[in-house]
Amino acid sequence: MKKIMKKPAGLSRLVFLLSLVVCQFNPSVAFFVNSKVPKPTTEMKAAAVSLAQYAPAAASLFNNMKTPASILAGAMVPLGFLAPLPKPESDVNGENPLHRILRKVHLFIAIASLCSELIAVMWATVAVNQLTEVPHLPAESVWHLLQRDCNLEWLAVNAHFLLGMLGFMSMIAIRGYFSAVVAGFSSTGCASICAAAASGLLLMVSIYNRGVAAGGGDGMRYGASILSLITTYVRLLVKRAISIESFGPLELMSLLLAGMSILLGIRALIVPEASSLPVKKTN
User: What are phi and psi of 139, to 5 degrees?
Assistant: First the structure.
């Protein structure tokens, strides 16, 4: 029984040696055998290594935008609504036309900025939920994942956060001007207060412009400035709202109401209200 059990092992060694000899002297057979298991090339290895799961990192980026947007939205409520603008003593008998315009502009900016920051929070919250709940394919980087799966969401969060931030700084400038007038500052002092707020606003815009121009670091970007970012966001939002595949009546209605609000607000600033016009007395 022991001899019978040893024969298959010796036979298998013989078959293995014969196969090596055949592959050695027959190149076609050797190529056929090697072609069954292709060796990975350098390009294949690089492609396999570069693709990774960046959904958690993308969700972290949205959270980074959601937190400061929430803070700004909370700060806008007392700054724009709860605390009224100071009223100078010179406006007791009759308000200065410039002051009347600034009060209207302040109220309009406060409402628009608060809504913009809340919209940014909403976009970021839904995007984080989608990145967490829905499986996403691997990507080359976080930027490529955002461009592929969350392009509109990322544009919306950045655009609304930026618009709200600019409005917040404008509110600070207007409130600072009225506070300076009430405190008895001269025109030079009032200009200094407004210049300080304008300096901060322009620096923020410059920082954002450089970030937009840098893009993803590999040549992919939305443009050279915040105007390109905002126009791209509006274009994609309108395209999705009116598209047959993704028609959104609420999105379309929101865009129409936003445009109407801007036009009516400009008209209210330019054309005096009927109640403010002098009434002619008739005998």
Answer: -140, 170
- DSSP one-letter code for 41: -
- Dig out the tokens for 278 from the structure: 């002098």
pLDDT in tens, 30-72: 443 444 445 555 555 454 446 888 888 899 999 999 999 999 9
Other residues' Cβ atoms within 10 Å of the Cβ of residue 138: 13
Q: Where are the alpha helices (DSSP H) in the chain?
A: 2-25, 27-35, 42-50, 55-77, 97-133, 142-149, 151-182, 187-214, 226-242, 249-270
- Calculate Rg over the CA atoms of the chain: 33
Q: Which residue has the tokens 């936003």?
A: 258
∠ CA 141-220-56, nearest 5°, is 25
Tell me the per-residue pLDDT of 146-161, one tens digit each, with 9 for 90 and over.
888 889 999 999 999 9
3-state class (DSSP) for residue 127: helix
Answering whether pTM is above 0.90, one says no
